């Protein structure tokens, strides 16, 4: 199978849902040797990401960023001298096919922690382990210039906008620049009420813009680092050099690289999530109430001996015929028509313990939303199948931005926790974290005709079924292009 790219940005797919790039949801996979052209309207400035969306292709490096500039004559609500783009990622020596095979195997073989963390594609690895990892002799050569850390050159006294995006396949990260404060000004293409930080927590699928002033001792260079948080680290710190001109770009800083915050400090990560607010003058006020509330209990489960992730005890398995095609052509046997549940057993489920019955069910059922309705999604975290373990899940919604109404700890209370919502100036995003043993409340307008994936952005978790699908206004779209066909019941209508 070939490449699929997920343009996870803008409202660009409004009117062109087949340009979302999600295999099994909006189109068939692109086969080897084929060409597929995504066409969409770019309607908002900001920092966005794209990546492969077939199997676990993103973990193999099929990703990038797209920067959308403001229209001529329009300026940002903040000032800076220079603009830099930085992609953060993690890297495995095992191929994505090997990783996927392990996830599907009995006994289960998890992908484990990555071997390296990358800043702009460059990272480090303990070369003493190279023989055990099967790396060819001479490849692991620290004297090779290609193995040098990424270097970001700055002019003393100038202010820099760093557009930082994370496309890790597993790791949540903390990013910091030694000795420098950062001011957050943008999140997923939306302006943030500025606030200062020393380290930025960033989860897979998120983008941020931060302002950094080169105002420290210019006779030396400084470390820029990324460290794993939310999982016990087993990966070396990712390093880059914050290079003060005219020092040599690869001049090593005289200090030890920063190790970042404690990996299990959930409190500080939750506090930073709560700190994000929409910038004054750019607030898109959400509807005060919603038309529908969907609570999704995030659990780790087993199905016929296979390890899975589930929502309300259903683990997503995508159909052979993409939902968009099946719904538009009324192919009712392409997937199960019964709706999935809007909630779970709130009163009796203990989120702090391994479930008494961990078995779940595979499902390709979808949520049918009334067009233009306002929908609340409450993500509820729980214990995994490991005692005293609840993982962090970055949730990404295709085709929309959502208002992040709030975060909380413990079990969400339907009768009172809605009172904690920020409906005055909530930030809008397309990706938001679900913290351990906590909840995240999101609100969005079902105003983009099509079928949209909503899933955990951890590559292995989505592969193991951690996602749902929303349909809205399916009858309102234009004629489907033949280029998205060629699989399942659309096989007879394959693109030329």
UniProtKB/TrEMBL annotation:
This is L-ascorbate oxidase. Its cofactor is Cu cation. PANTHER family: L-ASCORBATE OXIDASE, MULTI-COPPER OXIDASE. It is found in: Secreted. Pfam families: Cu-oxidase (PF00394), Cu-oxidase_2 (PF07731), Cu-oxidase_3 (PF07732). GO terms for cellular component: extracellular region. It comes from Populus trichocarpa. Dimer.
